[in-house]
Amino acid sequence: MAQIAVIAKENYPLYIRSTPMENELKFHYMVHTSLDVVDEKISAMGKALVDQRELYLGLLYPTEDYKVYGYVTNSKVKFVMVVDSSNTALRDNEIRSMFRKLHNSYTDVMCNPFYNPGDRIQSRAFDNMVTSMMIQVC
Q1: Residue 34 near residue 70, CB atoms below 8 Å
Q2: Does pTM top 0.90 for this prediction?
Q3: Within a 10 A sphere around the Cβ of 79, how many other Cβ atoms?
Q4: How far apart are CA 83 and CA 102, in angstroms?
């Protein structure tokens, strides 16, 4: 089970995709809760930031059932990934590479001249890439 969310700089969702889940509201709550942790990590990194190219925030917080990971772009757009905590096959470097792939696909969406920044992402190519990532995680 996996969920992926792209959150704008102003903390509203640009894209949310999840596998069929029993409680969709619980997922939205986890994503919005993780934004507080993302803000804390960004402010802590801002004070002693040595390498500004490191965008991966790592594990934001674990719960009994899920692990929540975060990534932030240079433009302060946040990516949140929620994976099942029973999935022990996923390593930190695999999560990091998945976020890079998501970031590259997000960049392709932003470069589309027909996309208005700040609108919900409705790109079929982006959706297909996210779906393939979620299949890989499950």
Answers
A1: yes
A2: no
A3: 24
A4: 15
Pairing relation of β-strands 78-84 and 2-7? Answer: antiparallel
Whole-number Å distance between alpha carbons of 45 and 28: 26
Contact 127, 99 (CB under 8 A): no
Q: pLDDT for 79-115, tens place per residue? A: 999 988 887 778 888 999 999 999 999 999 999 999 9
Q: List the Cα angle 20/24/30 in 5-degree steps.
A: 120
In the 8-state DSSP scheme, what is residue 50? S
Domains assigned to the chain:
2-137 (3.30.450.70)
End-to-end CA distance of the chain: give it in Å, rounded: 6
